[in-house]
Amino acid sequence: MARLFFATSSVLLLQAALGFMPASKLALAPRTAARTSVPSRSGLRMAATAEEYKACYVDLLETVNKANCAPIVVRLAWHDAGTFNKANADKPFPDRGGANGSIRFDPELAHGANAGLGIALKLLEPVKKRHPNVGWADLMQAASAAGIEATGGPRIPMRYGRKDAAGPEDCPKEGNLPGANIPGQQTGPFPDGTPTPADHLRKVFHRMGLSDQDIVALSGAHTLGRAYKDRSGLGKESTKFTEGDAAPRGDGAKGYGRKGGQPWTEKWLKFDNSYFATMYDPNADPELLKLDTDLCIFGDEGFRPHSMKYKDDQDAFYKDYCVSHAKLSELGVEWEVPGGVTF
C-alpha cells in the first residue's frame, strides 16, 4: 500500500505571462491590527503586517517560478494542514494538528508520506529570511496559494497570521494522510481498515471536517505535478510527458525541473480542470496516472455529481476549489491576530 501524495514536482508559468497584477493592486482592503511580538524558535518576532504578507506573496510568486517548484510547495502546505483532527478541535494548540508549520521539524518530515518535502523547505528558507516576520505556517500556505495562481489557477482568498508550532515536540503522529493504489492492485483493506478508495478518502478527509465536495474539489489539484516511484512507490519511472522536450507548462515553454515521474495530466504545470476530463476518459493516454482514489470520484455516487460538474465547468471548479483550498489552509489554526490578516 503506497502513500498518495498531494500534487508533487515542479515548474510554473512566468509571472508576466500570466498577467499578475502589480503589488500595488494585489489588495483591495487590507485588515490592520496592532503590531505585536510573537514567539519564534529564535526568540520574538514582530507579527507581520498586511503589507509584509503582500510583499512575501509577490516574492513567493517569483521564487517559485525561478525554482520550478509550484506543485511541491502545494504538497508541502497540504501535508502540514492535513494532520488536523476535528475530534481534537477543543484541544490546546497545537495538539489538534493542522496548518501550524510543524512539518518543518524532522520527526514529521520523516513520515513516509512526506518523502521529498525537505526540498520544498529548502526552497522556502531564503524567502523566510527576506520576510522574517512571516511565520512558517503562513509561509507554507502562502506558497501553496501562489503556486495555484502562478500556474493559471484562481487567486485564492487567504487569511494570514497563523501561530507556528514551536518545536519537534509539537509534531503529530504518523498516519494522517491518504494512501492509494494502482487500480487492480489492492489486495486488502487500506491501512486504516477501510475497504474501498471512496471509504478511505472519506475517513481521512471527514476526520478533518471536510465534505465530499471538498474531497472532489481538492482532488482536482492533481492536475499539477507527478508521482515519483522513489517517493510514493507509485507510477512509472518516466513518461513522454516528463522527459526530453516535454512542455508541460501552460504557456508551452520548455523546462520542468527534475526529469521523470508520471503525471495525472498532459499539461501538469497548468492548473485547470483537465484532471477531471482525464480521469473520466477511458481512452486517455495510458502514460497518464490514474490511481484508485482518482477513479472513485466518478465511480462513487456521492462524489460523482461534483466530479461531473467540474469536468464540464471549469469556472464552477475554480469557485469551489478556492473555498476548499482556503478551508484546508485554516484547519487547526490559532490566529496571532484575531480573525487573521488579509491583503
From TrEMBL:
Residues 137-343 form the Plant heme peroxidase family profile domain. Keywords: Heme, Iron, Metal-binding, Oxidoreductase, Peroxidase, Signal. The keyword Signal applies. It comes from the Eukaryota. PROSITE patterns: PEROXIDASE_1, PEROXIDASE_2, PEROXIDASE_4. Residues 164-173, 232-252 have a biased composition (Basic and acidic residues). Residues 1-19 form the signal peptide. This is Plant heme peroxidase family profile domain-containing protein. It comes from Nannochloropsis salina CCMP1776.
